[in-house]
Amino acid sequence: MKHAPHRTTGRIHGLAAIAVALLLTGCATTQNPQDPLEGYNRAVFRFNDTVDRAVLKPTATAYKNVTPSFVQTGVSNFFGNLSDAWSAVNNLLQGKGEAGMGDVTRVAVNSTFGIFGLLDIASEAGIQKHNEDFGQTLGVWGVPSGPFLMLPVLGPSTVRDTAALPADIGADIWKYKRPENWRNIGAAIRVVDKRASLLDAGNLLEDAALDRYEFIRDGYMQRRQSQVYDGNVPRQADGTDDADEATSNAEPAADPAGKASAEPTK
C-alpha cells in the first residue's frame, strides 16, 4: 500500500478522470434538489463499494481480527491527537475560543503525558474532544453546503466540503512526516484503522438499509448540518427544522456565540 509522495498529483488526476468518466455516463437530474447529480453519484458509489469490498473491507477485517485491541486504540488515539490540532484552528476560526483552547490543551496533554498521543489522557481528565474541519468552518461563515457529491474513494461530500478539502489535506500534520516511507506506512495504517472502526456499522447498514446510497446520502447531509450548528439546528418560522427543508441546499450563517459549548464527537 506504499505510494511515493511524488505520485500524489497523479493519483488526484486519476480520481478526477474517473469522476469525469462516471459523470458523462451516469449524470442525471432527479426530483431531489439536494442531489441533482444522483446518476453520477450512484455510479461513484458503486465504484467505491467495489473498491471497498475488494480491498478495504477485507484488509480492515484482518487488521481488526489480528491486531490487539490496545494497539488499535493506540493507533486511533495517535492520529486523533494529530487531528485535534486542526480542530483547534477551526474552532478558533469559528469564534469558539473556549473549544479551541480546549483542543490546544488536549494536544499538549496527550502529546506529552499521553506518549505522543498513544494514550488519550485528556479525555480521561474531562477535556472534551471536538472534530472540526474547514468545511464546517465555511458552513459557520454562511457558505451553503451545495448539492450532495459522492467522491471517488473519499466517499460522501458536498460541493462546500469538497472545496474545503485542500485546506484539510494541507493542514494534516502527518502529511509532513519524514522519512517518507514512515509517512506512507502510517497513512496506510490510518486508513485501515479508520475502516476497521466502521466495520460493525457497515454490516448493520448492509442488513438494514433498502437503498444504501439514499441512507448514506441523507444521513451525511443531516449529520453535516448538525455539525455546523453543533447539534442546535435552527427552526424555521413555521416550526420545521432546516434539515427537513427539502427545497433548500443552503445552511444559514451560524452564530458561533450562540452555539452550545458541547459538541458531539465522532
From TrEMBL:
Signal peptide annotation: 1-30
Pfam families linked to this entry: MlaA
PANTHER family according to UniProt: INTERMEMBRANE PHOSPHOLIPID TRANSPORT SYSTEM LIPOPROTEIN MLAA, LIPOPROTEIN VACJ-RELATED
Family: Belongs to the MlaA family.
Protein name (record): Lipoprotein
Keywords: Lipoprotein, Signal
Organism in which the protein naturally occurs: Massilia varians
UniProt cross-references to InterPro entries, sorted A to Z: MlaA (IPR007428)
Organism classification: Bacteria, Pseudomonadati, Pseudomonadota, Betaproteobacteria, Burkholderiales
